[in-house]
Hints:
With about 475 residues, this protein is mainly alpha-helical. The protein is built from 16 helices and two strands. Strands 1-2 form a two-stranded antiparallel ribbon. β1 and β2 form a beta hairpin. It is globular and about 65 Å long. Residues about 1-10 have low confidence and may be disordered.
Amino acid sequence: MARRMGGGMSVVQITEGPIAKQILAFFFPILFGTLFQQLYNTVDAVIVGQFVGTEALAAVGGATGSLLSFFTNLFVGLSSGATVVLAQEYGAKKWDEVRATVQTSSLLVLTVGLALTVLGVVLAPWALRWMGTPDDVLPPALLYLRVYMMGTIPSFFYNMGSGLLRAVGDTRRPLYYLIIACLSNIVLDVLFVALLHWGVMGAALATIFSQALSAVLVFACLIHANAPYRLDWHGMKNDRRLLGDILRVGVPAGLQSNMYAISNILIQTAINGFGTATVAAWTAHGKIDGFYWMVLGALGISITTFAGQNFGAKKYDRIRQSVRVCLGLGFAGAVLMSVLYYAGAPFLMRLFTPDDEVLRIGLDIVHQLAPWYVAYVCVEIFAGATRGCGRSLAPMLMTGGGICVLRIVWILFLLPAHRTLPFLLLSYPVSWVLTSVLFLIYYFQGGWLKKQIRLQEEKEAAQA
């Protein structure tokens, strides 16, 4: 199941052998990595909520979380484009294209990362005011957002670099680097916020310093790799054809993820209208709720990489089998997380704040949303599989219609007539069910894999 490459790297061989074991070998390192990532995000909120106050808790999560997700989703989407392209080239053993993909991806990080840093810092005040951020939350939220955005390039580079390593089967080193970064973030949180009393600025600084550390570790790994995917920092150049392939997969993937971010920004705007206590409760829920999404996200990344390499190797039956395995894992994880969160919510919510009003609202949110986790599994798995085969536009359109458009309609036209928090939250399970139905129909009736195989054959014939 694993084999050694130059430089002592152990990689998972996913184009042959038992599928379930190989997916789990991919899944667990990614899961543990996202677990630590979610852990340090949660520690941010816990420390700020306990040592600074309710307004600061609302600032570092609720008021800024949706905006930061917008940028993060774009990074992850573009990184997934590079992951898919590299996985397909690696599966097909096209070593020149493997090298060129790594160089092109790194240049993309620098150019896009710099542009987003400037945009984020300049537009932060306008965005927070447009979202209706409460007056007592606005100053700390603006400070947190601007400081956080200064770490855009390191964050993007870690996401890109770790995606490239996973594309070739190296799931361990991205995990190790993320664990180191997460532990450093926790230590810096305690130092900057609890001991030095730097407030939300300290929480933001702790995050960007830890992101910079993870980026340095990934960068060092790529430039010292004794393998075709080594990053030649001095000889970097852009390959327009590969850049086009990366963007063709990555931009729809980023837009798909940002369909959620856009709808969540609108929902956050509506949440802000219910007051600071509701914003703080929504923040606490988001930090705990994130542990479920990291499980499902790890499965999505696993199936994307698995499908990408096997598509490149023209082993299409393995793609179909891997989808069935991931669906089983996803449904089991969703049921387990729903039960645990529903039962443990009173204790978990109290970790963030002693405020009784915040706790009451938070429990109401959990009781309404947690039982519906299972409704989203099909979206993540089917989208990951089709994207891994290079087909990103259709998942983006289905997500845009089922998630973004429905929630926009819900907020703009239905919510004004039923302005309550439970009715607002109802948009989540409704959109999950609708989008899952769309993906089920597309996957089983759309003939998407045959179309993608034909396109790949035509592309190879043109290059021959």
